[in-house]
Amino acid sequence: MGLTHETLRPANYCEIGCRLGYSLALSRVPAIGIDPDYEIKVALTAPTRLFNTTSDSFFARDDVAQILGAPIDLAFIDGLHLVEFALRDFMNLEKHASPDSVIVIDDLLPQHMDYASRQRNTTIWTGDVYRLVPILRHYRPDLDIRVYDVDMKGFGLVTRLDPSSDVLAGNYGAIEADILAGNWSFPTVAAIRDHMQPRATDLLANDLGSIAARRAAKASMQSGRRAAPALPHRRPRLSVIICAYEMAREAPRTILSATAPYQKGLKEDEYEVIVVDNGSSTPLTYDNLPPNAQIVRVPDPRQSPVFALNWAAREIAKGEILLFAIDGARIFSERLIDETVKAHDRMEDAFVFSLSWHIGPKVQMQSVPEGYGAEIEDGLIRAVRWPDESDGLFGISVLAGSSSNGFFGDITESNSFSISRTLFDRHGGFDERFTSPGGGLANLEIFRRYVTRPDARNVCLLSEGTFHQVHDSVATSGKNRWEAFASEYEAIFGGPYLRPSYHCFYQGKPRAGMVPFILQSLQG
Buried (b) or exposed (e) across 64-92, using 16+ Cβ within 10 A? Predict the structure, then answer.
């Protein structure tokens, strides 16, 4: 939705099903949010009117035209996930739109048929909204309906509207009877996709650009003036997505390390930092947050961080490259973001990752039972004059267990790996079947999935990494939970977790502080 707003630059915006306000907050123009149970969690920067009612009741008002004030220019349907409600929402929005307006529809490509049930039985739920597409294509072949293969749920654009059309209204009784009889449905995900013929996600930007150009050209003809070329709107190259939970001590250092002036190389408008608070008892805050950074509260906190990370990637992030940090207690090295972007520039569809270190004399699974803790660690960090001396962290850290094979062996996970949005949509994000606290082996699974692809282009950063601060983490606090994590993995995949074996390229020149670890890696 962020790309849609940025490209189309609508005159106004209407959202059905605004709930927590995350997509509503993307609007920069006068907006209307309709939801009988809205609970806005984010700041709405545009002039916004909220209506605590159902969409049917809103559009039944005698004064709806006066409330709208002008034809709806951009609308988003994300309300009750039943096809008849989505159909009525479309009918009402089109009636109050213009021929050049755009209607966006969510939940059109369920990834599993369980998601598409008419009653919610799963965490992820699309309902049977997908049935709206065959209905519209049958009754309204004049509409331009395009469905995009966005991960998990799909994304639809409807253009070439006709506000004067009464075809749907005239046939609504028959359509509703067909819906209740089970018509316009498909038995499998494959059958749904065969009908939808979803377009690749990387075509969305070009398609939106074409729609914007068509709208501008028509507006210029109506005004009798030649349209001025649209000014370029800069999107961040990369989105850093960090998940944090109960990290009031550790997360501020992580945020500092992920933003300027600590991060060197890229300009601030070339990347964004999204810190997802996964339900901390005291909401995470940070004084003087830079303009390219934000802290958001996940709408549905869970003990596993995987949903929060996927949600932020799909709903919040604007970058064409996504960098994930599953553990918000990890300090970034000072050029991690810049070197990541350079690696992606040099190799298309790369999977870029860095090694991980633990601050302290040993890996923290060993040092914590021996008395290592936050007070000792704070003293170590002060002693090396971090953040003024960024390389000092290498001198007080050891390679994490997952990175113990070093730069030239196979590691098992990374807390700073990145992929293009195209790869994210094609191969998926974190597997949301991992429900253990901390995600269990979710980070190992996604790392293995990407580095072992037949066409994988893996790039290891030689000059950068992350540093784990001690905290009450389920993985590094000294509590041995590997057996439970391994059991969860085996239950999901039907077999044990296996360390990956892969080939990789290298990016960057090792900094002085890394030389001992390079030598350690060479010695095997």
Answer: eeeebeebbbbbbbbbbbbbbbbbbbbbb
pLDDT of 239 > 60? The answer is: yes
| Pairwise CA distance, residues 144 & 368, whole Å | 60
- 507 phi/psi in degrees, rounded to 5: -130, 135
The Cα 284–Cα 290 span in angstroms is: 15
Q: Are 240 and 325 in contact (CB under 8 A)?
A: yes
Question: What sections of 9-140 are H helices per DSSP?
Answer: 55-59, 64-68, 83-95, 132-139
Count of structural domains, the chain: 2
Q: Tell me the two tokens of residue 263.
A: 């991060």
Q: How far apart are CA 197 and CA 190, in angstroms?
A: 10
CATH number, domain at 193? 3.40.50.150
User: Per-residue pLDDT tens for 245-295?
Assistant: 999 999 999 999 999 999 999 999 999 999 999 999 999 999 888 989 999
* Domain CATH number, residue 328: 3.90.550.10
Nearest to 264 by CA among 508, 53, 96: 508
The amino acid occupying position 387 is: P
Lookup: tokens for 475? 């993985």
E-state strands within 88-150: 97-106, 144-148
